Structure formats: structure tokens, C-alpha cells
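In this section we turn from sequence analysis to structure. A common task in structural bioinformatics is to predict how a protein folds when a small molecule is present, because the ligand can shape the pocket around it. The inputs are simple: the amino acid sequence and a SMILES string for the ligand, here zinc ion. Study the lines below before reading on.
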Amino acid sequence: MSSTTGADEVEHYLRAVVEREPQVGECLACFVDRMVAEFGCDSSLLWATRFRDLRSPTATALEKRFRAQAVRCDCLVVQKAYTPVREVLVRDLHTDELERPERMPPCAGVRRTNTRPCAHWRRSPMAGYPD
Ligand SMILES: [Zn+2]
Ligand SMILES: [Zn+2]
């Protein structure tokens, strides 16, 4: 990574942010996962709050809960706040361990104003995470 980060790229990123919307029925976790895969994480809860603003503007407890879990940015939302359920994991042929797939399957769907993840994710327990 080097000199490619410039004003153009920032502008491209910002434009992407205002253009991107969750798909119909797409859940918070799948949306954030998809956006982080595509655009990376800017070390904020950018995509999570965008989802919240668009889908469920009153769900202000969401960020509070993330902060309480030390989830400070989007990539942690889908690594820490939520983790893929066993059913979507794939077996690594070398280590024989279950790992998250490179791309999550399409969202299993949630009701429109819901900030809960779909059936592909589970909410991680708060305990056991070193801050
Ligand atoms: Zn991040
Ligand atoms: Zn989903």
C-alpha cells in the first residue's frame, strides 16, 4: 500500500458511501461485511451507522452496544460483534479447521427495519474478548 491514497481516492470512497445502500431485506451484518470486502474499513462505524440511518434511525442503542463491546469500526462488527454461524463456515483443507468463507452467502434476509443479523450470523457473547 502506498502512494495511491490521495484526494481522488477519498472522493471515490465518499461517493461510494452515499451511493451504497443495503439491498432489500439485507441485514446489518451482511451489508457491513459486503461493504468492508469492497471498500475496506476506514476505522469507524461508517457502514454500520449508514445502515442504521437508512433502515432504523431510532436504533441509537446499536452504537452504544458496539462501543461497549469495543467494536469501534466496521470490520470489527463482522469479526467481533457478529460472527458467521457454523453452517456457513468452510473447512480449510490444510488445517482441517472451519473458517469463514471468503465471501459470505447472500443474506438470508431480515425485516426491513431490523438491525439484527440474519440467520448467517450470531451475536457474539460479550465475555471473553480482550479489549
Ligand atoms: Zn476496522
Ligand atoms: Zn444477512
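The chain has five helices and four strands. As an exercise, try to locate the residues that line the zinc ion site and compare them with your own expectations.
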